[in-house]
């Protein structure tokens, strides 16, 4: 009887339901980076709730979480964080409460009355300048980015993948070797996107050759075979490239190419994604195709990029002018 009572008490606590929700998200096959973000947002606000309500964090009951306590917790959370971080945490908790309502753990979702920052400007922020992406790729391929242990093939592969696929940072970092799949000349990247949605992006032959060059130099550096589960992109120690390392790589590459001033405020890695989408729109892709390639849940998110006629996905990707310079830079010849 005592064990049953303790179980019932556990099921009324926030830590119990947080763990249950994270298991639910994991079952949906969310990317590991996405799961970490959810866990961080839930834990951070939970810590503030414990302070606001005066409860032990390990025993905080759901009944103590009210609209008022949530407003106070988010106000404390927002004091030292950016608007985008607060908005992300708000979305995480909104999804969490929707889950609690469905599970019958609570009678309603209080998040609609919890203030969140105003929606930020969603205007696309591609790299400024018609030939800026080509300049970036050429100079990086030539070794313009100075480092203690230069690896221009890796740098070029990362930048080219971002510019030619429009991947989000988390999506790129979550790629494994086996995600680059298909026969030569028909390769595709299998991407685990936001919200547990997956998509497949065509890889043009020029990008394929750049990736092959990178993987060859990677084998030479670390002298081992690459199992499919290995991360596709790694750092100079052969470990998985992380978010901070990716940000630094892009930032230093832009600086080395002399184009730091062509990145608009509020954009960095995302500027390469916006450049991909903007060029697709300019070259003829329609909203549906761009939404599929970018992993947008709705074509409304793609409307800011385009007002053009429809084209097939692979033709849309090949129309991306960035591939021209990749073809010039690759050291490999096309297979016969």
TrEMBL record:
Keywords: DNA integration, DNA recombination, DNA-binding. Residues 122-318 form the Tyr recombinase domain. Residues 12-101 form the Core-binding (CB) domain. Residues 110-130 are annotated as: Disordered. GO terms for biological process: DNA integration; DNA recombination. GO terms for molecular function: DNA binding. This is Integrase/recombinase XerD. It comes from Actinopolyspora saharensis.
